[in-house]
Amino acid sequence: MSVPVSFIGRSLGVLHSIGPVQETIEDQTSDNLVYIATGAGSRIGMLRSMAKTEVQATTDALTTMFNRRAFESPGPVRASAPAATRSATAWRT
C-alpha cells in the first residue's frame, strides 16, 4: 500500500508499506498509515517552513549575504551560507 505524504496540498513523498503479495490490508492498518503519513507531512512541512523563514531572517534578499541579525544572534554564524553568498564572498577576497 502506498500513501501520499503532503503538506498544504504540496506533495512531499510517498509512504510505502510492504507485505505478502496476496494479503489484504485491514481498515485499521490503512487508517493508521494515513494517520502516520498526515503527521509526517505536517512535521516535514513545518520544519521546511521554519528553515526557510530562518534563512530569510538572516540573509539580505538582494545580495543573499548574511545581515546584521545573523551576526548579532546569540548562536554562532553558520558556516554553510547560501551558494550565492559563498561565491560573492570568494569574489571579494
Q: In a few lines, what is going on in this structure?
A:
The chain is α+β, with helices and mostly antiparallel strands.
Tell me what the structure shows.
By secondary structure, the chain is an alpha+beta fold. It has two domains: 58 residues, no CATH class; 31 residues, no CATH class. β1 and β2 form a beta hairpin. The radius of gyration is 21 Å and the shape is rod-shaped. The termini are far apart.
Number of helices: 3
Q: How many strand elements? A: 2
| Percent in strands | 5-15%
Major sheet: 2 strands, antiparallel
Q: How are the secondary structure elements laid out?
A:
Elements: E1 2-7, E2 10-16, H1 27-58, H2 68-72, H3 83-92
Antiparallel strand pairs: 1-2
Structure characteristics:
3 helices; 93 residues; 2 domains; single chain; alpha+beta
